[in-house]
Amino acid sequence: MDWGTELWDQFDDIERHTQWGLDLMEKYVKFVKERTEIEQAYAKQLRNLVKKYLPKRNTREDPESKFCQYQAFLQVVKELNDFAGQREVVAENLMTQICMELSKHVQELKQERKLHFQEGRRAQQQLENSFKQLENSKRKFERDCREAEKAMLAAEKLDQDLNATKADVEKAKQQANLRSHMAEESKNEYASFLQKFNRDQSQFYFLEMPQTFNKLQEMDERRTVRLKEGYGVFSETERQVMPIIGKCLDGMKAAADSVNEKNDSQVLIELHKSGFERPGDVDFEDFSQPINRTSSDS
Amino acid sequence: MDWGTELWDQFDDIERHTQWGLDLMEKYVKFVKERTEIEQAYAKQLRNLVKKYLPKRNTREDPESKFCQYQAFLQVVKELNDFAGQREVVAENLMTQICMELSKHVQELKQERKLHFQEGRRAQQQLENSFKQLENSKRKFERDCREAEKAMLAAEKLDQDLNATKADVEKAKQQANLRSHMAEESKNEYASFLQKFNRDQSQFYFLEMPQTFNKLQEMDERRTVRLKEGYGVFSETERQVMPIIGKCLDGMKAAADSVNEKNDSQVLIELHKSGFERPGDVDFEDFSQPINRTSSDS
User: Fold this and answer.
1) Given an 8 Å threshold on Cβ–Cβ distance, is A265 in contact with B2?
2) Cα torsion for B73, B76, B78, B81, to the nearest 10°?
3) Do B73 and A142 touch (CB under 8 A)?
């Protein structure tokens, strides 16, 4: 079942529906665009967070960097940076593969749809013109028949009239003939326009409009298929980054696993031990043993 | 190798390092807290986006909802809502399992560390007091030795003096004996304080401070292990939601796959076909056949 045969008299509904289809596609594009903006903001905030917590200068000389618990912290922060990078990839892919692609498609289809409906309206207009011509010729035929009838009755009446001159009768008969002839011509003209109109109408309803409606159906189905693909891409872009995000998480886990508390205790020892011995006992200083005796020693 | 033996003379460095450890833990908590805020903002924006694109009222009666391409759109939007829900789960888990847990741990450790260093300072003070006592007793012993020396020399000199009375000589000898006796007492007191100090010093350097430093080492290693666990949770929370996010993506893909363009074309037909036949040919209206003849027919 196609639109050409089943919806032959639903020009307006087809017009509305095909517009609805384009609006739906634009609505989806807008939805995705807003999602990419959210994604980019998220990635940016994560990047800023990372920047805030990574050291500004080369820390290789900092004693802090000798502790694996600190290195692990830096590693976790760096992996978050890569994670943010993957969110940017998602945003970019959504933008190019959905927003840009489908927007382009919508613009193309808007033109195509416009052409089809213009065609349709033109055909409608032509049929209307054909109908007007038919109606005009019909009215003319009717009028000419009435006139012919009247002229004939007038001639007959005059023929029966005892007071009428033969000239008058002749004139009246000629008029009747003339009117009859005109009615005959109008009839032929009307018949001709009728034949033309019936042909035009048949062509319109059985060929032109079905073709136009079927082209619109094909166009709308094409649009629907593109939209379906667009829906698919929405989840695909997320799935594509999952393995790489998984690697970020692996990196974070490895950083956690690398933390060795005993190692860091040893690092502190290495950094700060003096190597000195602990003080031993203080000696007794015997002031009762004199250092020098004076002259009384002699 | 432990701090008690290797870093026996590095009180300040141990104080600094244990503070550094607590600061690092607080820095990590702050980092994670800021991450959860970013995550919550992200989820909120996604939720708002979903709310914006889902219909406000029950659309079951809307003709729009009969088209599978539209239902698929709604389904994709709903799955994004669930996706946002998972981001909220991540934020919540990070907050409870890392921020709240580790903050509590830091507060406890701050108290514990404070007690240890108070202990250390008290022990240091006691040793200093013991040393002061030793120094005082030594100075007294020294002074008393000098006095005894002087008194003995004075007595000897008087003994040799021809002009001195026996009474003076006797007095001088008694004074010398007295001073000698006092010096002997000071010596014993000094010896006693020396013994005490050496005992205190040995206790300080070989027992008390090592114990305190080792407790601090154990405390710091305990903190490091908790920090290590905290690093692990950072990636774990993300991994935990991956399967459920996968289901959201499956849902989106199913929605995409459910789009059938031919089906929607038929829906339009069902909604709008009139069932009427297309117009047939228009008949010829022959006005040349009069409907009624007037009196001229008789």
Assistant:
1) yes
2) -140
3) no
The 10 Å Cβ neighbour count of residue B202 is: 14
Asked if pLDDT for residue B297 goes beyond 50, the answer is: no
Query: Residues A183-191: what's their mean pLDDT?
Result: 96
Q: What is the pLDDT of residue B294?
A: 46
Q: How far is CA A271 from the centre of its chain?
A: 62
Average pLDDT over residues B153-168: 91
Chain B residues whose CB is inside 8 A of the A42 CB are 38, 41-42
Task: Name, in order, each residue with C-beta under 8 angstroms of A214's C-beta and a sequence gap of 6 or more.
Answer: A2, A3, A4
In angstroms, the Cα distances linking A6 to B71, B91, B233, B235, B268 are 24, 55, 62, 58, 10
Q: Do A231 and B14 touch (CB under 8 A)?
A: no
Choose among B201, B187, B190: nearest CA to B133.
Answer: B190
The shortest CB-CB distance from A8 to any of B6, B141, B278 is to B278
Chain length of chain B:
298
B121's CB contacts (< 8 A; 6+ apart) are none
Let me know: does A272 contact A113? Beta carbons within 8 Å.
Answer: no
**Percentage of chain A modeled with pLDDT above 70:** 96
Query: What pLDDT, on a 0 to 100 scale, did the predictor assign at position B290?
Result: 65
> pTM, whole model, 2 decimals?
0.89
Cα torsion for B77, B82, B88, B92, to the nearest 10°?
180
Mean pLDDT of chain B: 94
Q: Which residue of A has its CA nearest to B229?
A: A256
Question: Distance, in angstroms, between A103 CA and closest chain B CA?
Answer: 16
Query: What's the CA gap between B94 and B231, in Å, rounded?
Result: 10
- ipTM, interface predicted TM-score of the complex: 0.89
Predicted pLDDT of residue A296:
43
The Cα–Cα gap between A246 and A239 comes to 11
Question: What pLDDT score was predicted for residue B59?
Answer: 67
Residue B90, token pair as written in the block = 């991540």
- Residue B118's pLDDT is 96
What is the separation of C-alpha B56 from the centre of its chain, rounded to a whole number of angstroms? 43
Do the chains contact at A288 and B24, CB–CB below 8 Å?
Answer: no
Q: Please name the amino acid found at residue A185.
A: E
Helices in A161-208 by DSSP H: which ranges? 166-203
Interval A142-164 mean pLDDT: 92
Query: By CB neighbour count within 10 A (0-12 exposed, 13-18 middle, 19+ buried), where does A128 fall?
Result: exposed
Residue A30 is predicted with a pLDDT of 98
Q: Chain B closest CA to A77's CA: distance in Å?
A: 9
Measured CA to CA, the distance from residue A111 to residue B148 in angstroms comes to 125
Instruction: Using alpha carbons, select from B98, B79, B80 the residue that is nearest to residue B36.
Output: B98
- Asked whether residue A249 carries a pLDDT value surpassing 60, the answer given is yes
